[in-house]
Amino acid sequence: MRKNLTLLCALLVVVGALCSCRPYAGHRFYPGTPHFARTHPDHVMLIKRRPDRNHIELGNVWIRPEPWMDRYFVEYKLRKKAARMGADAVVINEDKYFRNRVAYRYYRRGTMIYQERFIGGVAIRFQ
Q1: Average pLDDT over residues 16-36
Q2: Is residue 17 situated within a structural domain?
Q3: Is residue 4 part of a domain?
């Protein structure tokens, strides 16, 4: 009986650890999209509207910024994810806050309550 309880506790710890490791940034190709060689993150532009130039939409990129992330870190992560896809630019089409508040614990600073944020866009490659 005690062995089963110990095994159950160990399983709960592992499942909890895996659930807490959600990715805060990512990318996903659209089906049937051509794949290109990676580009350098510094050459990827962040824009707010679709350009007039001919382009191919490669897929989505997103990030869920934490309170400690500044603007430059968030922009770099979006550029880095798009660069992995071979993109020349990211069209930011979603920047929203969620209604639910989240507690974030700082070491020696206490707890901070903030609204979770989501920034998403479409990675494009110019023709």
Answers
A1: 77
A2: no
A3: no
